[in-house]
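User: Predict the complex.
Assistant: Input components as received:
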Amino acid sequence: MRRYQFPYIPTPRGRPPMRWTDTQEPTTCRRCNMHWEDGDPALTIACTGCGGPADEPCRRRSGGNERVCACRDEAAVQMELLTRCEGLTWDGRHEKPLLLRERPIAHALMCRSVRTGAPVSRWTS
Ligand SMILES: [Zn+2]
Ligand SMILES: [Zn+2]
């Protein structure tokens, strides 16, 4: 006997959707093609907006944490870790979302959970 299955629900029992990433893997801005071999420089400092510690993704409760808070990018620019994006943006921020995976990566130096509803990235190795 087959039980009736509900349609796919992204957040069962209120659990936030979770993805996994490596905050120190190489990343490239999709707008200006600037490349960071050791990952997003904004991730090397703690975030004052959501309290995310250094080397960890942002922790906004609302999710979407594959992108850092605007203030984290801004702080990194102030500390000269990051330049403003010269691509076509309205806010000068680089487009450099973390690559998302379905499960933790064993070989990652910094394998961190990301609270987001975004699908797994297509560009992961
Ligand atoms: Zn943040
Ligand atoms: Zn850029």
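Residues 16-115 form one domain.
Let me know if you want any component modeled separately.
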